[in-house]
Protein: Peptidase M15A
Amino acid sequence: MKNFYKTISRRLILSILILISCVFLTGLGFALEDLPDKAPQPSASETEPQGPEPAVPAPEPQETPQDGAVIDHPLPEDPILTDGPWASAHFLMDEYACDCAGYCDGWPAAMDQELLEKIEALRRYFDQPIIITSGVRCERRNAEVGGIAASWHLSGHAADLYCPGVPYDEVAAAARALGLGVIEYPDQQFDHCEIWR
Structure:
C-alpha cells in the first residue's frame, strides 16, 4: 500500500508541475509549434500488426457508458515526486514501474522504448496529463489484477492509461493513429496500449 501512495504522490506533483509549466508558457505567449492539429498518421510499417493481439478476458457484466462519456477519474491526491530517471519529457520511469506490494523490485522487465516514445507522443497530442495506471507487472501482480498469462505487461510492452477529461474512445483513436495496439475498457474508461513484439 505504501508503494501505491508513493506512486500516486509522484503522479500528482508531476501533473501540477506540468500544469504550472503550461500556464506559465501560455502566459508568456510561447507557442508550442511541435503539437500537431490532429493525430499523426502512422506509416504503413507502423500500422501492420507485429503479432496477434492477446485475448482479453470477458469483463463482468456492468452498465457500459456510451461512447464519448467520461468518468471523472480523480487526479492523485498526494504530491508526485519529480526526482528519478525520466522515461520521456513528461513521464518518470517510476510511473511505469510494477505497483505490486513488494513482490519484485519494480522492474521485472525493462519497458519497451518504442512504447515509451509513443505514449509521450500521445501526451503531446492531447497537451494534458496522461495517467499511467499500470506499466510493467511481475507475474504475481499480473495474476492479482486478472491479467492474462501472456500479458504484454509482463515484458514491458504495455501500459494502461487514461487522460482526465478526455473520453476513452478518443484516447484510443489517437493511440491507434500513433501505431499502438489498443484494447478499450469502456466500463472502466481506460485504454490498454501495447507494442507488439
Q: What stands out?
A: The longest helix spans residues 2-27. The chain has a mean pLDDT of 78.
